[in-house]
Write a structure and sequence with these properties.
ten-stranded mixed β-sheet, D-Maltodextrin-Binding Protein, domain 2, 12 helices, 10 strands, 324 residues
């Protein structure tokens, strides 16, 4: 039986004989499907829908979002990795989560480096280290000292096994020399409910998820996890500036295509994505989600993915976490 993907790939390859400009100009001729590998309503879904709307306006064809949730984002990513290479099925990748899955899941169903090619970065979301007000610490060194003085009295909440929030806690343990156990929850919402109630005292979560609670005084922000202070929480110093060298965690998002997608299509998509990221409407929508737009070249996106895979692979090994 003739493999449809191979046929499409061969036809796309023949098209490379055309001048690149002419080939790129001919694309797209129909609706593009953007796979979001999480359920509707979350940050990845909202980012995907904003990007799809802006790119539709400039591409001259609709880009529609299709949610394929499951296995921490691996189900949707694997579907795109197995898809046709004609530029009509793309992935709004949660690059940090996908990179973690490469080291934590025994069979993620795709290889982020081999099966998918970056179009470009979309943006990132910073995280914050927050504590319940009953915790006396107001700085990272103070928190570390209190945990070490009372090692049985502290644990940290996680929004799910293998999430950036979970692995931020593991990174903290390694760099701070603490041994806090994780309290896993099924999502950020239930974890935040128990944090505010004081059932658990420490948590890493995205800045948008914690910001309202910090402003209300029901949580205290100890640090943010970027290399520079967050524009959304500028009063909170970074963990790096408080002595945790190399403590950098952000949730990165980007646009990906199946490997084998013709270069002229990738180039056109990169140009249109970067144009969309400059849109005032997109910037406003991103800001509501705590997302910083990050226009990039494909090479810069590739470098970011390489960094994420290496960082989380090393951490998973150092923490002794087991693949699911």
């Amino acid at each position: 039986m003739i493999n449809r993907r191979h046929v499409v790939g061969a036809l796309a390859g023949l098209a490379l004989a055309l001048p690149n400009a002419a080939f790129a100009q001919a694309y797209p001729q129909r609706t593009i499907t953007l796979i979001v590998p999480y359920a509707p309503g979350g940050a990845t879904d909202i980012i995907g829908r904003v990007v799809a709307e802006e790119m539709s306006n400039s591409l001259g064809q609709r880009m529609i979002v299709e949610n394929r949730a499951g296995a921490g984002g691996s189900v949707g990513a694997a579907a795109v990795a197995r898809g046709t290479t004609d530029g009509y099925t793309l992935l709004l990748g949660a690059l940090t989560s996908h990179s973690i899955n490469m080291g934590l899941q025994a069979k993620p169903g795709f290889d982020l480096k081999k099966d998918l090619v970056p179009v470009g970065l979309a943006g990132n979301v910073g995280l914050a280290l927050v504590v319940h007000p009953s915790v006396p610490a107001k700085t990272v060194p103070e928190l570390i000292a209190q945990i070490k003085a009372n090692p049985d009295g502290y644990s940290y909440a996680s929004s799910g096994q293998g999430s950036p929030q979970h692995l931020s806690g593991e990174m903290f343990n390694i760099k701070a020399g603490t041994k806090m156990p994780v309290v896993p929850y099924r999502g950020s919402g239930p974890a935040m409910t128990d944090m505010v109630a004081g059932q658990v005292k420490i948590m890493f979560d995205t800045i948008p998820a914690v910001l309202q609670h910090v402003k209300a005084g029901s949580l205290r922000a100890i640090a943010t996890t970027g290399t520079e202070p967050s524009p959304f929480m500028p009063e909170a110093p970074t963990a790096i500036s408080q002595g945790l060298d190399g403590f950098e965690v952000s949730s990165w998002f980007g646009l990906l295509a199946p490997t084998g997608t013709p270069q002229p299509i990738l180039d056109k998509l990169n140009a249109e994505l970067n144009k969309a990221l400059q849109s005032p409407k997109l910037k406003e929508a991103f800001a509501l989600q705590g997302v910083v737009p990050k226009p990039s070249t494909p090479a810069e996106a590739t470098a970011r993915i390489d960094m994420e895979i290496a960082k989380w692979g090393e951490l998973i090994k150092a923490a002794g976490l087991k693949a699911e």
